[in-house]
Sequence to fold (440 residues):
Amino acid sequence: MPVDPARAVVHEQGWQSWSPSTGYALGEQPHRPNAEKRRIGCYRPETAPGADVFWGEGLLAVDPGDGGPVTVVAAVEPTGTVPSIRARAVDGRVVVAADGPVRVVTDAGAGGVPGALARWADEVAGGLGLPAPRPAPTIWCSWYQYFTKVTEADVDRNLGLLDTLELPVDVVQVDDGYQAEIGDWLIPSGRFSDTPGLFKRIADRGRRAGIWTAPFLAGARSRMAADHPDWLVRDTDGTPVSAGNNWDQDLYALDTTHPGVRDYLRSVFSTFAGWGIDFHKIDFVYAAAIPGVRHEDVTGIEAYRSGVRLIREAIGAQAYLLGCGAPQLPSIGLVDAMRVSPDIAPSHEPESGDVSQPSQRGAALNGVSRAFQHGRFWVNDPDCVVARPGVERREEWAAHVAEFGGLRGSSDGLDQLDDWGLKTTRRLLTDPVPRHFVAS
Ligand code: 9PG
Fold:
């Protein structure tokens, strides 16, 4: 399509929650992985190009910059096949190619790229007959203060502080750190002595209990991977496919079509339901869709969707389901809320220079560019409020959550908050959430 090369913007939408998604001028270098483990864990590894071409996963938009209509190039079936879409600037034109079926929408409506994406999302949601998302609960999450070092006492202390401070938090969500290993969800880590008892204490105090899992990952150190090597997605030569590297170990992907895996996931999530847990943050779920050989001959996206559906059945229809590290378009219709960004961090810039990694800049970048999904596909989770002293530019992050936060969560040790932090946390947990961010 013809464009004004000085003014045109190519807007990329990435594969999963953590994949950088934003618009670029034609001369700009798009964000790309700067290490192999990040390419696998934060982008779509099988399609990742270099910075010499623009790249959307199932969705890319071009604003020609000459006042003309926006062009949206999108997957024909966003929950079925997600083509990789490439765009290049060539002699005053943008040339787009895709490796699967796409449709091209010319949108002359108001609001530029965000407006065009919102109208596209309305059409997709309408076509699938999606109901309006359920109202989201408010959350306290253990991750961004305690990380993997969280203890049972930390959660109990904050549970008490929620009462003392009278904070309007519905769900106390225990994040990564309660479990022995990645995959060994029912074996407690050394810092937790009575996990079911902790969840009962949460319910006894009138809050809902929430838990984090990475249900489709198998850590190399886990008992699960040692006991069930046949559960892993493999290459054609029989080697387990890498699902990345984190927690100082290699990660593998569970084959969600394998009957043993399905039984195991059912038993884990039914056990959680029996403990009274009814909020689930399922994380690193991109793993279920990774290309490879499975028990049943299905696509990665089909394997992913059947894995998430199985979890939904085990947790019950009333439980709240939050996707994280999740392929975006393939999750439509499966989750109540979706993390749309990489992690927030106390620092504004990512340590590694890659905005798929924890940073305020990366989290805000995606939160803005994915605002069009909120209220249409699910409730957007921009990531938690962190408002304690020491968080760089905390006023800016709070303003971002106020504008773009569908799901509202606090993730500070509540005894770490100063007056401003407490006041801001209370306000963000109390204020009504915008239903749609973009007029359609
Ligand atoms: C728990 C955390 C928190 C957080 C999630 C997720 O290696 N990585 O690129 C990587 C990306 C994200 C990440 C961890 C590692 O964070 O987003 O909220 O639940 O897991 O481990």
User: Anything to note?
Assistant: The pocket of 4-nitrophenyl alpha-D-galactopyranoside is lined by residues 18, 38, 41-42, 143, 175-176, 212, 246, 283, 324, 343 (CB under 6 Å).
